[in-house]
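Lab channel / #folding
Pinned by the channel admin:
"Please post every new chain as: sequence first, then the C-alpha cells as a reply. Keep commentary short and put observations after the output so the thread stays searchable."

First post following the new format, from NK:
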Amino acid sequence: MAFDSFRDFVNKLEAEGELRRIAEPVATELEITEVADREIKKPGGGQALLFEQPVDHEGKVRAIPLLANL
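Reply from TO:
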C-alpha cells in the first residue's frame, strides 16, 4: 500500500490501532531504546511508538517527534 506522505502512514497506523503515542518527555539515549525494545518483544511485535517529546543528550525537548517500531 502506497501513501502520499509519512503523515498519512502515521494516521493509518493510528486508525488501525497500531500506534501508541507517548506524550511525556523521554530521553533519546537509552530510554527510548528500552521502551522500543520492550514493545518489539511483545507477541506480534507490538505497536509503533510515537514519542512526541524526545529529549536529546543535552536535556532539551526536540520539536520533531520520533517514531519507532515501524
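NK: The first strand starts at residue 19 and ends at 22.
TO: also worth noting, The two ends are 15 Å apart (CA to CA).
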